[in-house]
Design brief:
The complex is a heterodimer of chains A (225) and B (82).
Chain A lengths: L4 E5 L6 H12 L4 E4 L11 E4 L13 H4 L2 H11 L4 E4 L1 H8 L6 E3 L7 E9 L15 E8 L3 E3 L2 H9 L3 E5 L10 E5 L5 E4 L17 H13 L1
Parallel strand pairs in A: 1-2, 1-3, 3-4, 4-11
Antiparallel strand pairs in A: 5-8, 6-7, 6-9, 9-10, 10-11
Helix pairs in contact in A: 1-6
Chain B lengths: L1 E8 L6 H12 L12 E6 L6 H12 L5 E7 L7
Antiparallel strand pairs in B: 1-2, 1-3
Classes of the chains: A alpha/beta (225), B alpha+beta (82).
């Protein structure tokens, strides 16, 4: 059975094509491209990806406008039904703004836009997105963001830590994120938001392939199911 | 009806932008500045009779991010002209 994925494009998304190429290479099937203004998602999806970029020019707050665009209602519904949802960079910001993930992504503590490949620790290798990694493994994935400084109230942080919902942690915190958090999952375990770009570390020509196993994890899970 | 919404980071949430501006003020030789916090002003022109509840809803759903920000609503028509 073909892997049925959707990549959502918002006005200002700029990593949607990279995301689509990564999904197609990993699964053998090109994902369906969905526009932010579409009223609903295609039926029977195995995976939804919210790509990076600067949706709506980051007006008001990064991800705030996109979180309220027509298609997001369908994404929230699909997430509620257990469809795996990945948000990368601006996609992570959209997931927090839409309430699918807790917390917020604030301006980097340094005030600088940071674009470089950084070491990342896989904190939880039991998730649908990370089971092709080893627990505690260090991987190299590029970041490229201005607003990646993860913030949440202390009780929320305690819950995230206690429930093993921190999926990835920075080895050298680049942006001031609380507890070096680079990526978190929701309570159900089917929504992952992360600032680093796995689709940019997918093939040898990218300089590293550590991001590929994230896509392999999701696809292997769907085929096994 | 003219409405002004002031959005501010919650107390205790680090404001790196404010800190950088504070640093620059000190660099310019201004003394006695204890803290700088930067927020956002959003002016709305809404239909007369728009309820306070509706305005609150606008703030909570979009204009402010309640995880990190507080907001205050001012009704400009009720402010005495300067």
């Amino acid at each position: 059975m073909a892997f049925r994925a959707a990549v959502i494009t918002f006005p200002g998304s700029n990593c949607d094509r990279d995301m689509a190429v990564a999904i197609e290479q990993a699964s053998g099937t090109a994902p369906i491209r969905v526009w932010h203004g579409d009223a609903s998602l295609p039926e029977g999806l195995d995976f939804i990806a919210l790509p990076g970029g600067f949706s709506y020019g980051d007006y008001l707050r990064s991800g705030a406008m996109a979180a309220n665009s027509p298609i997001m209602q369908s994404v929230v519904e699909a997430a509620g039904k257990g469809v795996p949802v990945l948000g990368v960079c601006n996609g992570f910001q959209i997931l927090t703004e839409s309430g699918l993930l807790p917390g917020a992504l604030m301006r980097n503590a340094s005030q600088n836009y940071i674009c470089r490949t950084i070491p990342l620790r896989v904190e939880n290798a039991q998730t649908v997105f990370t089971r092709s990694y080893a627990e505690g493994e260090e991987i190299a994935i590029p970041i490229a963001h201005h607003d990646g400084n993860y913030f949440a109230a202390s009780d929320v942080l305690d819950r995230l830590e206690g429930d093993g919902r921190v999926a990835f942690r920075y080895s050298n915190n680049p942006n001031g994120s609380q507890q070096d958090i680079a990526g978190i999952i929701n309570a159900q375990g089917n929504v992952l938001g992360m600032m680093p770009h796995p689709e940019r570390a997918f093939e040898q020509a990218h300089g590293g392939t550590d991001g590929r196993r994230l896509f392999d994890s999701v696809i292997a899970g769907m085929i096994a199911a | 009806m003219k409405i002004r919404v002031l959005v501010q980071l919650k107390p205790g949430v680090l404001d790196p932008q404010g800190r950088a501006v504070h640093h620059s003020l000190e660099g310019l030789g201004f003394e006695g500045v204890n803290e700088v916090r930067i927020g956002r002003t959003i002016d709305l022109d809404v239909a007369d009779g728009t309820s306070d509840a509706a305005l609150d809803d606008m703030c909570k759903k979009l204009l402010a991010n309640m995880v990190i920000e507080d907001y205050a609503i001012q009704k400009l028509d009720q402010v005495e002209p300067a």
